Amino acid sequence: MSDDNVMYDSPLELMQEAISSGSCDVQSVIPIPEGGFRCACSCSGWEIVVDDRTEGLRRARQHTDETATR
User: Fold this and answer.
1) Residue 44's Cα: distance from chain center in Å?
2) CB atoms within 10 A of CB 40
3) Domain that holds residue 54
4) Does any domain span residue 7?
5) pLDDT at 66 (0 to 100)
6) Cβ atoms of 1 and 9 closer than 8 Å
7) CA 41, CA 30: separation in Å to the nearest integer?
């Protein structure tokens, strides 16, 4: 692995910084035991449950696009 790869050195610190910033930098689409997928954003202002992963990814992109234009 190359030393100039930013994810090689400290991915945990990068993720923690993105999440703690309160901005819409990180979205997640995670399967839940009850069925479906929980989708959330690092802004803490967006969280939904959808039926399938594809819809979750689409909605996460939509959320990011909407917040980028504000």
Assistant:
1) 10
2) 19
3) 22-68
4) no
5) 83
6) no
7) 12
